[in-house]
Amino acid sequence: MPELQTERLRLTPIGPHLADELYRLHLDSGIARWYGGWTRADAEARAAEIGRSWQRDGVGKWLAHHRESGELIGRGGLSYQDVDGVRRLEIGWAVREAHWGSGYATEIGLAGLARARELGAAVVVAFTEVHNVRSRAVMERLGFAYCHDFPHRGEPFALYAISLDT
């Protein structure tokens, strides 16, 4: 997959070659708060898994860098997830805490939705911990509607969905 550019971001498909940057991203306290502490081995395994997803499914996560400064802003994109017993196209994002409130998660989300439309997806889901009000607000800004809460990794998560065929 080629890199994408948004108004402010350069989105680079994650693969094994970006494991070090993915690890550095997950050291950010704002991201670690939601995703736990990652080891370098965790980042290497996850980067390899995402690279396989790009090859197998044509979707995956991007690392997001500021187009002008090159600063690492976050990550986000699409993956397939089993949700309510159905394989669904899921969108997500994580932005370094210093950049919260700057619209980067929304920008990453819009790029992911554009990719989902290119793939002909009818519905995309998003989910987060029920108390993650910032992420839920991004989902709502992107046009997602709340569906219901569900258990995920032993915690209550809020599920949202958006129809792309309207």
Automatic annotation (TrEMBL):
SUPFAM superfamilies: Acyl-CoA N-acyltransferases (Nat). Keywords: Transferase. PROSITE patterns: GNAT. Gene3D superfamilies: 3.40.630.30. It comes from the Bacteria. GO terms for molecular function: acyltransferase activity, transferring groups other than amino-acyl groups. Pfam families: Acetyltransf_3 (PF13302). The keyword Disulfide bond does not apply. Residues 9-165 form the N-acetyltransferase domain. PANTHER family: GNAT FAMILY, PUTATIVE (AFU_ORTHOLOGUE AFUA_3G00765)-RELATED-RELATED, N-ACETYLTRANSFERASE DOMAIN-CONTAINING PROTEIN. This is GNAT family N-acetyltransferase. The lineage of its organism: Bacteria, Bacillati, Actinomycetota, Actinomycetes, Pseudonocardiales.
